[in-house]
Structures are given as structure tokens and as C-alpha cells.
């Protein structure tokens, strides 16, 4: 079984779409570990704020199958195939890490956004602080500590999951 880390984000009815996305991820991958929820300003375009978090699960699927599953979940929750990269979205799921794999295909791993975007790095550092980035050879906690926190606005938000909803 491989340990995967997944970035989730939404800025269109984000509470609804993140809950639905997590429910779908749970159905596909079993129990999830979740970071806190964070709010951030849109990066790369003008738009409403995003809610972001990171989840972790285990899978016996290969990388291509995991990514295909994410795309299907996104589409099931209103994401249009082929939508512009820097645009509002109902649900964005990105594979950040697949164990300690470093590769270029079928996707680039570890995902570059880990070290470039606060909305990925902070929740990942919260969820897996001692885990070592397989390329830069530093823990995610260290990477977050060194990150230029003035470069992107991000803050934790209180998020109440509906009663009975478990991941």
C-alpha cells in the first residue's frame, strides 16, 4: 500500500464541494487523515478566496489510476474538464506525494506546489511535519518554517463538519 497526500481546494461553494470531495475520496481510498482547513487568497488570478486542506490515505492503485480517480471525482462535483488552470473551481484535487516517488510521468511528483504555495505547504506540514521531501531533503515542518510567509496570505479557519460525517 502506498501513502498518498492530496491537496484539496475550492472557491465555488467551498464548504459543500470540499465535504462532497472528501466523501468521494473516503469511498475510493478508505479512511482519511485531514489537516486543518485554511483560507487563502486566489493565486495566479483575481477571484474569491479559496478553502484549502490536505488529506492523506493509503492505496494499492498506481499513480495513473489515482490521478484518473481524482479527475473523475472533480468532474462528478462540477469541475469542467479542460477548464483554465488559473480560474475559479468547484473542486481541485492534486496528488502531492505518492510514497517517496520522484517522477515526471504520469504526473510530476513530488508536486511543485508543495514548496511554492503556502496553501499546500502549511497543511502538508501540519499533517506530516517529519516527513522528508524526497527532492530537497528537508522535512515539511522545516520547509514551512523557512517559507516566506509574507508572499501569500493564508490563515486557518474553523470548519464544523456536519454531525455523523467521518473521514
Shape: globular
Task: Please state the CA-atom Rg, rounded to the nearest Å.
Answer: 15 Å
Helix amount? 25-40%
Count of alpha/pi helices? 5
Number-wise, the strands total: 6
Order of helices and strands: EHEEEHEHHHE
Structural class: alpha+beta
Largest sheet: 6 strands, antiparallel
% residues in beta strands: 15-25%
**Spans of at least 5 consecutive residues with low confidence:** none
Quote the average pLDDT.
91
Distance between the termini: 18 Å
Keywords: ATP-binding, Folate biosynthesis, Kinase, Nucleotide-binding, Transferase
GO molecular function, one term: 2-amino-4-hydroxy-6-hydroxymethyldihydropteridine diphosphokinase activity
Protein name: 2-amino-4-hydroxy-6-hydroxymethyldihydropteridine diphosphokinase
Pfam families: HPPK
Task: Tell me what the structure shows.
The chain is of the alpha+beta class. The chain has helices at residues 14-29, 63-76, 113-116, 118-127, 140-146, and strands at 2-10, 33-34, 37-40, 50-59, 92-98, 154-157. Strands 1, 2, 3, 4, 5 and 6 form a six-stranded antiparallel sheet that branches. Helix 1 packs antiparallel against helix 2 and helix 4 packs across helix 5. Pathway: Cofactor biosynthesis; tetrahydrofolate biosynthesis; 2-amino-4-hydroxy-6-hydroxymethyl-7,8-dihydropteridine diphosphate from 7,8-dihydroneopterin triphosphate: step 4/4. This is 2-amino-4-hydroxy-6-hydroxymethyldihydropteridine diphosphokinase. Its EC number is 2.7.6.3. It is an enzyme of class 2 (transferase).
